[in-house]
């Protein structure tokens, strides 16, 4: 006897959600690029918003994929998305201003190939497998790019490998103190991976509703932005990092409170220190 | 992770020749790209990455995973998800392999493999300790009547209403072998990528070889982990959730998982290699 | 010689930290009911058994602990890069990672329970208020010890991986080891303690978990006491052995045989554990005996063949 995965019907159509979130993410990513023309990295927080938008799209994709019954759990889809997304993201960073577009194209290709492997070679025969893995790979790449842009103000490869350390007051180049060199990517990888699969995994059940799931996704996205904002103090200036931190905390508080309200709306009962009701079990 | 839902696919064999042919075309394309960008040396690197991916996919099928029923003593195996248990063993092996990287390829690979095998050996032993001393349940397999290695019979040691429980010796050995191959594969991918990054990054960034070592290590490390997870999840999809070990009939699905892993690793590997050669 | 002494000392403390981490990790995942046993907590209302267990559906333990430890390590690294004292950096990094973990726990419980409204499972707010902080406290111990252990490996033992990457690697390994060892103990012995000891749970019993405790309704907090009896220490020993032996065989034997000494030591260790496992398996079969009479398999097949 195992738990059935059920997903709700209705709500915003998946394709509409995908296109709007993709456009929002691209716009936010290019807004962070404006940082190259300003003295401080004030617009870094848009990277985090790009990540939130991509995550919202991704969790709807996971809902569609996992309701077909993969046999494995929901978290593996999130790990797959980021495992393939990080590769697409890293190669895209070498393309300067075109990085977001290149990331989306490369991620789409890699995701489609992985979907092909899963469906045609390992014979999973799930109708939405190829398109879902394509979308998930793009989501993974865009989320990583967004969070990294929030971290260091840009998504360019040279910015990601630059770092400096001070030794008795003298600054010198130390590649180990960069985003890639210190592998802060590892923390972002897992942050995104868990944030992507958590909303559908947590709202699983017969009364799953799309608005609650997507609100939880936004909440997970803003929650991920908070530690990224704290780490960004190392890479960008104090004012920008504080601005990012304030926006992350406010965004998280708002979405968390909204999520509590939606849970209260959907729950059977909202009890405090009451006993178990017997509904006549077997 | 629990084995939620039923399997939509997972039938034996390939769905059609399309899968096999498409996979072979993608493999050839990746190697052609590798040759175009960096000549034979790069082709060897990509070959190493592909072999690493195949070893990971192969190793994941050995690991005995029982999923949610195993957590109740209803099915044999370890009560964790396939992909992540294999990832745990493989990453512990990668840790050992990365540490021995400067001692040479053979030693580092052996270190990675033994690291993974040791982690699975300890974990599987402690699982049996809990089953025997904490729950009073002997090990029994649900898929075979006799252990292929020790000859122990299982039907009378299976409790009523269950599909078996614990880790019979064949499952234990399967777990150790799975950890061995997972650690070996992950370390191979890491060492191949580390090699090419250490050679080429100094020229791209105009820096000395020693100073870019942290970059090369981190890049190779995160790529290795990403590819490890992709291969492990693909194999988990192939297994559709639970497998008792090498004696399980599901183990016969290994060939198609190895091909899928080869294709996925080739594609991801060539992109990981191309990061050096492309860019504005 | 001094280097060897330092190496062995660091190995010993890393092993001790890993043991504490494993124990705390398993206790935390049982208090919150995470991982594979949680599918029973999810299933119970569907079978008509309303309960007051904390339904923490935050993926399985390996990816979850991969996140908390990678995050704790990343934050600790960042704080150290800002010239903060390492110990303070480790504590603050772990604290912020635990805050993230706490939020995930709360949203998981609310999400899963609200989605079970069809089966009339209520959301009990007092469970959130009482259990969440206890889960977070145990998680803090697990994260802090793991990240400290990774920091020691990076700075004192000279491992090439940077701190966040080590946090990711050992976080996933911690989750895998802790969940493999601790899950069956919690799943069978605690959730199904009203069924016979010494046998697996029959499939027909799915969902019939224990919901009433020694006095009143069972709360997940009681699972902490239970886990610390065997499951927690066993998980601690498991992860502690993994870390300690991995470091020990490298630090001590790598100079012998051009590095092959460590490999041979590893192979011997695997063989020793295989022997111990075989002994445990045989001990169980001999001491507990079979559940029923051995089936005469060959006789049946020969009668089938003749008819």
Give an account of the 3D structure.
The complex is a heterotrimer of chains A (282), B (280) and C (307). Chain A has 282 residues and is mainly α. Chain A contains 9 helices and 3 strands. The longest helix of chain A is centred in the last third of the chain and has 29 residues, at 238-266. Chain B has one domain. Chain B is 66% helix and 0% strand. Chain B is built from 7 helices and no strands. In chain B, helix 1 crosses helix 5 (169-205). Chain B starts with 16 loop residues before the first helix and ends with a helix. Mean pLDDT of chain B is 88; it is low at 1-10. By secondary structure, chain C is mainly α. The longest helix of chain C has 31 residues, at 125-155. Chains in contact: A-B, A-C, B-C.
Question: Keywords for this structure?
Answer:
heterotrimer, A: mainly alpha, 9 helices, globular, B: 280 residues, mainly alpha, 0% strand, disordered N terminus
Helix content of chain B: 55-70%
Find the count of extended strands of chain B (DSSP E, 2+ residues): 0
Strand content of chain B: under 5%
Structural class of chain B: mainly alpha
- Please report the two chains with the greatest interface, counting residues with C-beta closer than 8 angstroms to the partner's C-beta: B-C, 86 and 87 residues
Contiguous low-pLDDT stretches of chain A (5 residues minimum) are none
Q: How confident overall, as mean pLDDT of chain A?
A: 87
* Helicity level of chain A: 55-70%
| Overall pLDDT confidence of chain B | 88
SSE string of chain A, helix = H, strand = E?
HHHHHHEEHHHE
What is the count of helical runs of chain B? 7
> How many separate helices of chain A?
9
The low-confidence parts of chain B are 1-10
Give the N-terminus to C-terminus distance of chain A in angstroms.
15 Å
- Shape assignment of chain A: globular
Radius of gyration of chain A: 20 Å
> What's the Cα radius of gyration of chain B?
20 Å
> Major β-sheet of chain B, in short?
none
The ordered H/E elements of chain B are HHHHHHH
Task: Give the spatial strand order of the biggest sheet of chain A.
Answer: 1-2
């Amino acid at each position: 006897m195992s738990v059935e995965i059920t997903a709700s019907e209705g709500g915003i159509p998946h394709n509409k959600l995908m296109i709007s979130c993709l456009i929002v993410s691209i716009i936010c990513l290019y807004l962070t690029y404006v940082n190259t023309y300003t003295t401080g990295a004030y617009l870094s927080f848009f990277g985090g918003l790009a990540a939130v938008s991509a995550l919202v799209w991704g969790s709807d994709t996971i809902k569609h994929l996992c309701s077909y019954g993969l046999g494995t759990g929901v978290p593996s889809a999130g790990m797959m998305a980021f495992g393939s997304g990080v590769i697409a993201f890293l190669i895209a960073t070498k393309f300067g201003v075109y990085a977001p577009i290149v990331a989306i194209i490369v991620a789409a290709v890699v995701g489609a190939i992985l979907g092909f492997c899963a469906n045609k070679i390992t014979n999973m025969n799930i109708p939405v497998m190829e398109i879902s893995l394509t979308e998930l790979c793009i989501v993974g790449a865009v989320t990583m790019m967004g969070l990294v842009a929030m971290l260091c103000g840009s998504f360019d490869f040279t910015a990601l490998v630059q770092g400096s350390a001070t030794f008795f007051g003298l600054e010198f180049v130390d590649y180990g103190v960069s985003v890639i060199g210190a592998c802060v990517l590892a923390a972002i990888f897992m942050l995104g991976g868990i944030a992507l699969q958590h909303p559908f995994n947590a709202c699983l059940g017969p009364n799953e509703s799309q608005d609650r799931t997507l609100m939880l996704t936004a909440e997970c996205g803003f929650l991920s932005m908070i530690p990224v904002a704290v780490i960004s103090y190392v890479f960008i200036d104090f004012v920008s990092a504080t601005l990012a931190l304030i926006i992350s905390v406010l965004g998280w508080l708002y979405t968390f409170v909204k999520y509590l309200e939606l849970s209260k709306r959907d729950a059977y009962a909202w009890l405090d220190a009451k006993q178990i009701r017997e509904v006549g079990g077997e | 992770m629990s084995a939620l839902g039923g399997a939509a696919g997972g039938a034996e064999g390939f769905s059609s020749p399309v899968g096999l042919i498409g996979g072979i075309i993608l493999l050839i394309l990746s190697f052609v790209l590798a040759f175009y960008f960096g000549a034979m040396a790069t082709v060897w690197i990509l070959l190493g990455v592909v072999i690493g991916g195949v070893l990971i996919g192969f190793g994941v099928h050995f690991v005995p995973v029982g999923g949610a029923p195993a957590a109740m003593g209803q099915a044999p195996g370890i009560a964790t998800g396939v992909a992540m248990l294999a990832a745990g063993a493989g990453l512990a092996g990668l840790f050992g392999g990365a540490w021995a990287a400067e001692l040479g390829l053979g030693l580092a690979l052996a270190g990675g493999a033994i690291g993974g095998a040791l982690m699975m050996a300890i974990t599987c032993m402690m699982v049996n300790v809990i089953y025997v001393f904490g729950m009073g349940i002997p090990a029994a397999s649900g898929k075979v009547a006799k252990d292929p290695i020790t000859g122990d019979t299982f039907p009378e040691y299976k409790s009523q209403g269950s599909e078996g429980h614990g880790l019979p010796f064949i499952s234990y050995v399967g777990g150790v072998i799975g950890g061995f191959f997972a650690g070996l594969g992950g370390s191979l991918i890491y060492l191949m990528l580390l090699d090419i990054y250490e050679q080429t990054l100094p020229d791209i960034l105009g820096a000395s070889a020693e100073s870019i070592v942290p970059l090369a290590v981190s890049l190779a490390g995160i790529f290795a982990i990403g590819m490890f997870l992709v291969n492990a999840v693909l194999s988990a999809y192939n297994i559709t959730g639970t497998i008792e070990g090498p004696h399980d009939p599901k183990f016969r699905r290994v060939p198609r998982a190895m091909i899928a892993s080869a294709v996925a690793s080739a594609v991801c590997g060539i992109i990981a290699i191309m990061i050096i050669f492309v860019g504005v | 010689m001094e280097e060897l002494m330092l190496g062995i000392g660091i190995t010993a403390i890393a092993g001790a930290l890993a043991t504490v981490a494993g124990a705390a990790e398993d206790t935390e995942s049982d208090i919150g009911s995470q991982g594979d046993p949680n599918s029973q907590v999810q299933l119970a209302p569907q079978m008509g058994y309303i309960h007051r267990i904390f339904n923490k559906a935050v993926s399985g333990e390996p990816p979850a602990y991969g996140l908390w430890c990678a995050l704790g390590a990343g934050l600790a690294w960042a704080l150290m890069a800002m010239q903060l004292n390492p110990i303070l950096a480790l504590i603050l990094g772990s604290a912020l990672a635990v805050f993230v973990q706490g939020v995930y726990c709360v949203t998981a419980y609310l999400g899963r329970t609200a989605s079970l409204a069809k089966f009339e499972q209520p959301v009990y707010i007092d469970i959130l208020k009482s259990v969440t902080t206890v889960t977070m406290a145990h998680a803090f111990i697990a994260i802090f010890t793991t990240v400290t252990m990774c920091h020691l490996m990076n700075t004192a033992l000279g491992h090439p991986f940077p701190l966040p990457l080590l946090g990711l690697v050992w976080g996933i390994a911690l989750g895998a080891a802790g969940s493999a060892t601790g899950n069956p103990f919690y799943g069978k012995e605690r959730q199904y303690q009203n069924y016979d000891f010494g046998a697996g749970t029959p499939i027909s019993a799915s969902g019939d978990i224990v919901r009433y405790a020694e006095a009143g309704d069972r709360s997940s907090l009681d699972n902490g006491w239970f886990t610390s009896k065997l499951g927690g220490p066993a998980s601690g020993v498991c992860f502690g052995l993994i870390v300690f032996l991995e470091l020990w065989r490298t630090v001590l034997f790598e100079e012998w045989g051009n590095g092959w000494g460590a490999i041979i030591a590893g192979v011997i260790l695997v063989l020793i554990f295989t022997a111990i496992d075989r002994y445990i398996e045989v001990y169980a079969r001999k001491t507990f005996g079979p559940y029923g009479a051995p089936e005469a398999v060959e006789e049946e097949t020969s009668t089938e063949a003749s008819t």
